[in-house]
């Protein structure tokens, strides 16, 4: 198994992305620690993973609360013997479908502020333990909006650009300590629409599209004429977190089905 004897913390572990990554990590042998703000939904994911033979624990952690993040990471490291993987999959409160001319500053800035704070706090908390053990992988998720300039996506594009920039800086500083930092760049994730993670494209309610029409439009914008699935995201995340990807850091993994060509 790719992640046997690895300890992996997933922030936002009850959401569609976090749960998909947790399934893949658990399947590959990792001991998974799900963190999030709602115990009930975390426990639902944990019950599913445990039922499939996975090793999983849950904890209520607000990824914007510095003390809570630090204390949780310290507790996990003390109990498990270290932290090998940290994956940030929390949502950012993005607002789509509104032109910037009509968008409030609060709605524009919220995802940027939330992402920067949570990414910094969760990365720092895990990295303090990883640098002491001389190894570890820190992971984030972005989407195609980090590259093309698309209309009516609010602060999402700036947010994903900022996440990638922060990851590059962390990678530069943590690399000499044996810690890798990588992000996964996806298309929109239609399976995640149900819990409020909207496809990051210049289309939305303002365009009068139904959900099916929006997904069809997004598919046509890719070279493979399809979108990234949650299962694919989880599978790649498990590989990147494993020692098989030990030479990868300070880079994004392109899972955009050809929407964003490699540079």
Top keywords for this entry?
single chain; 263 residues; Rossmann fold; 7-stranded parallel beta sheet
What does this protein look like?
With 263 residues, the protein is of the alpha/beta class. The protein has a single domain (7-254), classed as Rossmann fold (3-Layer(aba) Sandwich), CATH 3.40.50.720. It is built from seven helices and seven strands, in the order βαβαβαβαβαβααβ. It has helices at 16-27, 39-51, 66-80, 105-133, 156-174, 211-220, 230-241, and strands spanning 7-11, 31-36, 55-60, 85-88, 136-143, 179-186, 251-255. Helix 1 (16-27) packs across helix 7 (230-241), helix 3 runs parallel beside helix 4 and helix 4 (105-133) packs parallel to helix 5 (156-174). It starts with 6 loop residues before the first strand and ends in an 8-residue tail after the last strand.
Q: State the total count of DSSP E strands.
A: 7
- Helical content stands at 40-55%
Taken from the alpha-carbon principal axes, the silhouette is: globular
User: Averaging pLDDT over every residue, what do you get?
Assistant: 90
Work out the strand percent.
Answer: 15-25%
Topology:
Layout: E1 7-11, H1 16-27, E2 31-36, H2 39-51, E3 55-60, H3 66-80, E4 85-88, H4 105-133, E5 136-143, H5 156-174, E6 179-186, H6 211-220, H7 230-241, E7 251-255
Parallel strand pairs: 1-2, 1-4, 2-3, 4-5, 5-6, 6-7
Helix pairs in contact: 1-7, 3-4, 4-5
